[in-house]
Every structure is written in structure tokens, then in C-alpha cells.
Amino acid sequence: MGGYIAAAFLAIAIIRILKDKTLIAPDVIFTIEWFLICGLASLQLYEFYEVGSKTWLMVLIGGLSYCVGVRLSASKIGLNVKSGEHISHNKRTREIKNDSLKYIFWILGIIILTVRVYNLYRTRIYIEMGYTLAEIRAASYGAFDIPGFRRSSTGIMVLVRKIFDALNTIVIAEGVYLSIFSAKKDYRPIMVSFLITIMSSLSDGGRFGLVYLFIEIIVCIFLERKKERLAVSNYKKRKKRSWMFYILIGVLLIGMVFGVTAMRGRTGDVAIEHLYLYLCGDAILLDRHIGFLESSDMSYGFSGLYGITTIVLPILKHMGIPYPKKYLDVGAIIEQAAIPKKIGTHSVMNAFVTPYYYLYADFRWVGIIIGMILFGIVSGNYYNRAVNDKNHFNIIIYLIISQMIFKTVHQYYLSSSDYVIILFIALIVRKFRFTLHKSGFETRQMDY
């Protein structure tokens, strides 16, 4: 059944690409990703378990619901672009409106780079002590004991780390935007993003950041290509140099994925099997959790919105408002997803339970349909804004949303406090920009 669903997703992607001439629309990214997931899972390589028909039906209905949401975003049902965000056709620019945002980027970029250098230095010390990168990564999550290893475990330190990681994500997206949409093709910002990503990956063994940066570069390049071409005599020459630079960055990022995998102690066939696990193991892991979800009461939104409630409700608790019972009960559902389960004869996985785990826990099939339609509407709206307005804020948000689409291998975007904090900070920045604009402090639009 997985092969048929993979074929259906591929057909949707091809139709969308041929009809709208785009490779970066949210439904195209989503269906291509899930074509690969379903196709690879159906092969059952490395003695992976078979996925049940009910789980495949969840994947199909959820995917179709997401595509419906994206299409709805192009209609009046979608959110309209607010007046004041639109940039007239003859004034589209390759520079951000407010130069102060560039200064903020460099200040935050230098701070984040400094922290990453320190983390890399600390990791190097532990490696010299004989620990592997996989063990160091496990220690950061409390799953492995390294004497003297310090990790954020208290409430305030966890919040500080999450805010830092959110700023890290925004700065990386900002660096990609500044370089690709720069009229003079200034590669320094994207190199800052590249260095932050590489050092983060080498210090904690994570590989998703490398994939995120790769996706953001591709999405931003295609958004820039859709932009109105200005009459510049050496445009073709600059374009060729730009493509060579971005291809080099892409090759380095892919190489780093395999390099970090090797540093975590997995080489040769073991490394290939490990990457295969992360590419398609989520569908199998979801299938392994179906029985638990069926035996649990519905969580009525507390699972899918856990990223919001886990921030808001503790604050209300300090104000004297007790936790709702459902919020306390949903802890078992969240913890269940973190429990390692066998997804094959020799393979174990945890956490990567897809959005359908959380949405099904909330309202069963209705939760999957409504939750994915809403995600599709939000994704489609910001894609339309990024393409049609070339607004700096909308492009940054869509770059982050492209991460969320890829992250559907893991969870629902509102079930993660990380992305809730990222979107909250981005909205604060947007509000600040419009306040400056209305007050007359924002610099004029610059045309090149």
C-alpha cells in the first residue's frame, strides 16, 4: 500500500510542478518528501517492519489534507496580505528595507558564532577524553552520563537555550536571505550561516541543521529567480558565479551529513542503514504507536498545541491558575513518543512519530484532517506572500516554514515549543519594523 501512496504523492508533485512551474511550493516540497518516505518504507530494507494499512491511510489523508490547505490559501479562504506589506512591481528590491536589521544580524551572528566556538571547544575536550560524538550528543539530552558534563536542565536555563536556538534559526535564515537577495551578491552573511551550522553540527552531532540550511538555500534561490530581473549588463556572468558558489555550499553540506554520521561511529553500510532509518523510519514508528493511541483518551488539542501550552500554562500556574487535567494527562502521550521502539529486526527509533501522532491523539481522524489543512493554509499563505510581494519578513518566515515541512518526519509544528518561540520572535520583529515605518524612522526603499 505504501508504494501506491508514494505514487499518488509523486503524481501530485508532478502536476503541481507542471501547472505552476515551481519546485518550492509547500505542497511540492511536502509531497516529494513523503513520496520518498512512503516509497522507501514500502521497500522494507534492512529487515524493517511492515507498516499497517491504518497508518498508511493516516499518511494519505493527512497528506491530501495538507495539499487541500495549500490550495485553499490561494482563495479568499486564505489570509489576505495586509496593506502596507505590498511592494509595487517596479520597486521590488534586493536589499532589506531597514539597514538596522543588517546590524542586528551581524551582532547576533557574532554572539552565536562565539557560543558555537565555545561549544565546539568543549566537545573537542570530551572527544580527546575518549567519548564519541554520539555519546556527547546523548549526554546533552540526559541519556548518557559524562562526568562533569553540564547541560540545561532547570526551567529558566531550558527557556534561555530555546530562545538562543530560536535566534540561531532566524539568524541562519537571515544570512541566506541577505546573500541571495543582495544586488551585489555579498556572500559574507551566508558564510556566517554556514559556519554557525557547521560548528553546531560538529559540537552536538546534529545533522538536521545541515539539511535545513540546504533547503533554505534552494528555496531562497528559486524565490530570487522569480523576482523581477533588473537590467544589469553583467547579470549572466554574476549568475554563473552565484550558482557555482551555492553548488559548492550544497556539496559541502551533504558531505558534512555523512561526515558527522561517521563521527557518531557509523560508517559504511551501517551509515547507509542509519540514514535510511531517518528517511523512512517515522512511518514505521507511527505504526508502532497506534495501539497506544487507540487505548488513550483524546487529548482535545493539548497534543497538537503542546508547544504553545507548555509555554503559556506554566506562566499561568505561577499566577495561581492550576493546570487543566488534560494538560497533565497529555504528558503520557508526549513521553510515549520519546520511548525507543523497534522498527525492524535490528533497528530502534524514537521521537520521529510524524504530525499524525499528535493530531490523531487530539481528535482522531478529524484532528488529522483539520490540523493538516490549517498547516497547509499557513504554509501556502506565506509562500504566496514570499512569491508575490518579495517582502523580507515573509521570505524569512517561508524559509522557516520550509524547515517545518521537512520536520513533518518528526512532529507537528505547533507541538514543538522551539518553532512556537521562533514564530513569536519573528512576529515581534515584524511588529517592531511596522512601528518604525509608521513613525517615519524606517529608511526608504532602496532600488538597484
Topology record:
Layout: H1 2-20, H2 26-43, H3 53-72, H4 100-128, H5 133-140, H6 155-180, H7 188-204, H8 208-225, H9 235-263, H10 268-295, H11 306-318, H12 325-338, E1 341-342, E2 348-349, H13 354-389, H14 392-406, H15 417-439
Antiparallel strand pairs: 1-2
Helix pairs in contact: 1-2, 2-3, 2-10, 2-14, 3-10, 3-13, 4-6, 4-7, 6-7, 6-8, 6-14, 6-15, 7-8, 7-9, 8-9, 8-14, 10-13, 11-15, 13-14
Write down the overall mean pLDDT: 82
Q: Percentage of helical residues?
A: 55-70%
- CA radius of gyration: 22 Å
The count of DSSP E runs of length 2 or more, i.e. the number of strands, is: 2
Instruction: Name the quaternary structure.
Output: single chain
SSE string: HHHHHHHHHHHHEEHHH
Q: How would you characterize this protein structure?
A:
- The protein is mainly α and 448 residues long.
- It is built from 15 helices and 2 strands.
- It has a two-stranded antiparallel sheet with strand order 1-2.
- β1 (341-342) and β2 (348-349) form a beta hairpin.
- α2 (26-43) packs across α10 (268-295), α3 (53-72) packs across α10 (268-295) and α6 crosses α14.
- The radius of gyration is 22 Å and the shape is globular.
- The N and C termini lie far apart (53 Å).
